[in-house]
């Protein structure tokens, strides 16, 4: 299957000498939700800007739906919707005029029924005749989303879409994203709310200092890099770790009543059963067991830390 977006060795160096992107290569498949994670200044917004034609790369090549963005700029932009971080709307226009103008700007035929349904889905229909300057911050964010979807794009970029918005809008937005994916729209989002990426995304990409350091299926990423923590609640206090358990990543709780064991979710041999067999052979009794798997946020933080350490 041909990727909907193909990014090949993209470079971006500003006049100041700052290298925002350093050989980024990435492919996005049609109909997927791809989450791009990274700390502030990692290059997320710059990368989105290059794909959308807002930032001119210093080198490399990008195609969208098989079209080179440099040679076919207008056709590519018709296929892309962008919800930026910052508000970018005319404050003196009504909601309806704003989305209608945005649709016409991309050369689409008028379709008032589609726009009406779009505004209803975003809880904007009752505000359609209201000037944007009179809307709340959350409502203005909804207008940005409506603008991005007005021309029925095949690809939707969401750059920190829920930063600073209310819980209701966040819920409505993710509901709409699921519907768009069902209709075949490809969605690329950047977010600081890692739980949203964990809940929504099919694949996760991590960018740090202008380089992609990892791209994985979300499930595979959790399996490969996730850690599980087993807590063994002991029947009696334990003073020290027995020598038979010395090779395990295991510690004793402060109250001496629990063993805390960390192991990889990918290593089937490094799991719970072998440890429990050793505990039985040592006549160490326990009352209960509990497990906790590392979150995507913990994995993300560890990946970035490893990248920083390797660069030093």
Topology:
Blueprint: E1 5-13, E2 19-28, E3 33-37, H1 44-51, E4 59-64, E5 67-68, H2 73-78, E6 80-83, H3 95-105, H4 112-121, H5 137-149, E7 155-159, H6 167-182, E8 186-190, H7 194-200, E9 203-208, E10 211-217, H8 218-225, E11 227-234, E12 250-252, E13 258-264, H9 272-281, E14 286-293, H10 296-311
Helix pairs in contact: 3-5
Description:
The chain is of the alpha/beta class. It has 2 domains: 5-222, Rossmann fold (3-Layer(aba) Sandwich); 227-293, Alpha-Beta Plaits (2-Layer Sandwich), CATH 3.30.70. The chain has 10 helices and 14 strands. The protein has a 6-stranded mixed β-sheet with strand order 6-7-8-3-9-10, with helices on both faces. Strand 12 and strand 13 form a beta hairpin. Helix 3 runs parallel beside helix 5. The chain starts with a strand and ends with a helix. The model has no long low-confidence stretch (mean pLDDT 84).
CATH superfamily of the largest domain: P-loop containing nucleotide triphosphate hydrolases
Query: How many strand units?
Result: 14
| CATH class identity of the largest domain | Alpha Beta
If you compute it from the alpha carbons, what radius of gyration comes out, rounded to the nearest whole angstrom?
A: 25 Å
The stretches of 5 or more residues where confidence is low (pLDDT under 50) are none
Helicity level? 25-40%
Q: State the strand order across the main sheet.
A: 6-7-8-3-9-10
- Classify the beta-strand content into a percent band: 25-35%
Architecture (CATH level 2) name of the largest domain: 3-Layer(aba) Sandwich
Category by helix and strand content: alpha/beta
Tell me, what's the shape?
Answer: elongated
Which fold does the CATH topology of the largest domain refer to? Rossmann fold
Name the average pLDDT: 84
Largest sheet: 6 strands, mixed
End-to-end gap: 39 Å
Following the backbone from N to C, one meets helices and strands in this order, namely EEEHEEHEHHHEHEHEEHEEEHEH
**Multimeric status of the protein:** single chain
How many H/I helical runs?
10
């Amino acid at each position: 299957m041909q990727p909907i977006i193909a990014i090949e060795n993209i470079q971006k160096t500003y006049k100041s000498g700052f290298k925002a992107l350093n050989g980024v290569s990435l492919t996005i498949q049609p109909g997927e939700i791809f989450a791009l994670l990274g700390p502030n200044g990692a290059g997320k917004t710059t990368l989105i800007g290059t794909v959308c034609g807002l930032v001119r790369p210093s080198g490399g090549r990008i195609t969208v739906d098989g079209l080179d963005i440099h040679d076919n700029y207008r056709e590519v932009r018709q296929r892309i919707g962008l919800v930026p971080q910052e508000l970018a709307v005319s404050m003196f226009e009504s909601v309806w005029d704003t989305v209608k103008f945005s649709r016409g700007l991309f050369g689409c035929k008028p379709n008032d029924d589609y726009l009406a349904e779009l505004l209803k889905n975003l809880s904007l229909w009752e505000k359609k005749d209201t000037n944007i300057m009179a809307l709340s911050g959350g409502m203005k964010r909804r207008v940005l989303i409506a603008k991005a979807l007005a021309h029925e794009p095949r690809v939707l970029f969401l750059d920190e879409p829920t930063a600073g918005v209310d819980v209701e809008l966040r819920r409505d937005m993710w509901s709409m994203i699921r519907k768009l994916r069902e209709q075949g729209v490809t969605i690329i989002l950047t977010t600081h709310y890692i739980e949203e990426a964990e809940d929504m995304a099919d694949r996760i990409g991590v960018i740090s200092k202008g380089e992609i350091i990892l791209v994985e299926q979300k499930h595979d990423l959790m399996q490969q890099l996730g850690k599980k923590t087993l807590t063994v609640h002991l029947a009696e206090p334990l003073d020290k770790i027995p020598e038979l358990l010395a090779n395990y990543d295991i510690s004793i709780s402060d109250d001496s009543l629990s063993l805390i064991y960390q192991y990889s979710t990918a290593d089937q041999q490094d799991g719970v059963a072998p440890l429990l067999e050793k505990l039985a052979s040592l006549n160490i009794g326990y009352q209960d067991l509990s497990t906790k798997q590392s979150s995507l946020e913990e994995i993300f933080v560890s990946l970035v830390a490893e990248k920083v350490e390797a660069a030093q």
